[in-house]
Amino acid sequence: MQHLNLESQHVNGRFSTELAIGSFIIGTVFFILHQVYPNADSVFMMGFMYVATAILLNAIMLIHLVYHFLLCPNQSEYIAIKMMILLSNIPIAAMYYHIIFS
Questions:
Q1: pTM for the model
Q2: Whether 65 contacts 82, CB under 8 Å
Q3: What DSSP state is assigned to residue 11?
Q4: Ranges of the chain with pLDDT below 50
Q5: Distance of CA 51 to the CA centre of its chain
Q6: 92: how many CB neighbours lie within 10 A of its CB?
Q7: pLDDT per position as a tens digit, 49-75
């Protein structure tokens, strides 16, 4: 059985960045669709289901990054940047929420 030495492994944060960018793009498409078709309940429901799924997936990725942040101190700066990129969607989502529900 091999011993897993996390500190010597390089954490690849490419997927977390792709997830953040993909979440932003898809969320923005749903926001624009809602602005163009404000009375379309189907757009609202699909957007709501997307947001619920995106929150779950992004939370799982954040937990994964925090885990590696704690176990790989030699890569903490790199992982912290990946966490900030992932978390950057929160203020954007809050702005979209404010615009839609105000």
A1: 0.84
A2: yes
A3: P
A4: 1-3, 8
A5: 10
A6: 14
A7: 999 999 999 999 999 999 999 999 999
